[in-house]
Structures are given as C-alpha cells and as structure tokens.
Amino acid sequence: MSDSVYTGEDFDARVRKQVEFYFSDSNLQTDRFLWRIYEANDGWVELKTILTFGRMRQYRPEERVIAALKQSDKLVLSANEDMIRRKAPLKDRNELKNNRRRNSVHIEGFPTSVTQEELEEWFNDKIVPKLPKEQAICSVRRIRNRAKEFFGVVDVEFKNQEDSEFFLSLDVSYPQGVVEGVEEKDLLKKMSLLRYRELKESGKRFGVNEVTKRRSSFKDSNNKRARKDEKKEGEGSTESEEKDNTEKTSEIATEGTKEGGEEAKGEGNEQPKEGAKEEAKEESTKED
Predict the structure, then answer these.
(1) Rounded distance, CA 100 to CA 102, Å?
(2) Could you give phi then psi for residue 152, rounded to 5 degrees?
(3) Are 143 and 193 in contact (CB under 8 A)?
(4) Rounded to whole angstroms, how far apart are CA atoms 27 and 21?
(5) Are 203 and 273 spatial neighbours (Cβ–Cβ below 8 Å)?
(6) Which domain of life is it from (predicted)?
(7) Can the peptide bond before residue 272 be classed as cis, meaning omega within 30 degrees of 0?
(8) What is the chain's alpha carbon radius of gyration, rounded to the nearest angstrom?
(9) Torsion of CA 40, 46, 47, 51, to 10 degrees
(10) How many CB atoms lie within 10 A of CB 53?
(11) C-beta of residue 223 within 8 angstroms of C-beta of residue 279
(12) pTM of the prediction?
C-alpha cells in the first residue's frame, strides 16, 4: 500500500473507523500481534505502533490522528496521548472465537486480483443492504497461501448467525452481487466457517474431500499457467539448442526420464498433504 498522505474530507471518520476496528471484538481475537500487546499492557497499545500498520500510514500528521481519535466513543487516549485502548472491556476470548465461527462464511471464487478495499466496497454495496437483521458486517478477510498470495478465498464475519445463514441461502456472483438464474459454475462457492473447518479437519484425517479437492484445483490451475509460461519461453529457443538437446545420449535421457517420473510421483503424493496442512493467512482491514 502506498504511503501517500490521505487528504479527504472524511479523514477523521476514516481514522476512527480503522482504529476502532483494530480494537474490535472481531479483530482482537484473531490478531495475535496486537493481542499480545493488548494483554501484556492492560489493554493499552502505543499509538506509534498503530501508526505503523499498513492502512494507517496514509494518515498523517500524528497530531491530526490524535484529534480524530479523541472523538471516538469506543476508544480512549492516555493522559499524554501516546497510548490508546478500548473503553469497553473485552469479552471472554473463547466466547468471541465461537461467535465468530458461528457468524462467519467461507467463500471461494473471487478473482485473485481483487483488493481488500474492493472487497469491502462490494460487500457494503451488494450484500449488506439486503441483510435482514443488521445492515453491517464485522470483517472481511482475504486468505493467503504460504507464499503470501491471495488465491480468491475470503472469510466474512457477520454481526449475527441469522444474517450469515441468510447470506448462505443466496446465489451470489462477483461483481454482480445477488443473482438469479445464473449457472452454478459462475457463482461464488460458500459454506459456513464451521462446516469448512469440519471438512478441513476431515481432510487431515482421511485425505481428499470437498475442501482439499478445491485446494488441489487451485494448485493445478497455477501449475498449468506455469507450464504455459515455460512453453512460451521454450519456443524462443534457437535451432542449435534444440539440436543439442536431441543429441543427448540414450543413457542420460533414460536417467532423466526416470528421475522426472520419480519427481512427478512425489509431487502427486505430496499435493493433498500440503492442501490439508496449509494454514491460511488472514488479511483483514489491517495490512502490514
């Protein structure tokens, strides 16, 4: 994210919304870094730490950030204005985690190029107004793989279970939103976060299931793209290089084929295992 300074008229409101999110029930239970600081200092966090977070770097100068946070009804600054914490005590963390799992939906099929800001805007414009109970959501989290790449998977936490179940009942496509009469292949795939975790755990115990198949399909698609790129590069090889390759001895060729077969076999065996073991990295409205 760019470190350019934000100068919009809604500067104060955006600052409050972002920092209030950091200290929200939804974020504190999942943000290990912030939680360790929060727990160690009776809820207080240095303001300079908050200002290093990716989405806060655009808000300068610090004095203007402080002035905006003074107007928050959810946060309080220390006497010398260098520390901040939430006003209301945090609920039991285990209870918060259970609520999050009940109220969250796991979604697959977003374009890998979509940004955090675009996702938040899409949910707020296309989904939130249709919710039956509370026209708001707690968080939208992009999930990344171990290579820190977003691969089209999102977890969204609703305010309550009723709204999450309502969302599950809808046919939804990106970027259209709620749709009717659309082919299943064009719809976003979604399930409750509880169900997803059950399937993920069963995949660890029993191998391939609905979740690990989709994880493998993501990898297969990436591998196909990589092979296409390699093929394009290979087409640019000179005639002499091709001749050189064909003149390799049969002994070397046989050995290479054998090694290639063993390697391919190893990858085939490893793939479901990696899919089951993969720990997704969450990216919400904090990027650092």
Answers:
(1) 5
(2) 85, 15
(3) no
(4) 7
(5) no
(6) Eukaryota
(7) no
(8) 24
(9) -80
(10) 19
(11) no
(12) 0.68
Residue for token digits 């209870």? Answer: 95
Tens digits of pLDDT across the chain (288 residues): 456 899 999 999 999 999 999 999 999 989 999 999 999 999 999 999 999 999 999 999 999 999 999 999 999 999 999 999 999 999 888 899 899 999 999 999 999 999 999 999 999 999 999 999 999 999 999 999 999 999 999 999 999 999 999 999 999 999 999 999 999 999 999 999 999 999 888 876 555 555 556 656 555 555 666 566 666 555 554 444 444 444 443 343 333 333 333 333 333 333 333 333 344 445 554 444
User: Which DSSP string corresponds to 143-189?
Assistant: EE-TTS-EEEEEEEEESSHHHHHHHHHS-EETTTEE-SS--GGGSPE
d(CA 248, CA 241): 11
If we measure between CA atoms, which residue out of 100, 151, 166, 156 comes closest to residue 124? 156
Are the C-beta atoms of residues 76 and 87 closer than 8 Å to each other? yes
- How many whole angstroms separate alpha carbon 72 and alpha carbon 12? 10
Q: How far is CA 15 from CA 7, 55, 59, 190, in A?
A: 12, 10, 7, 32
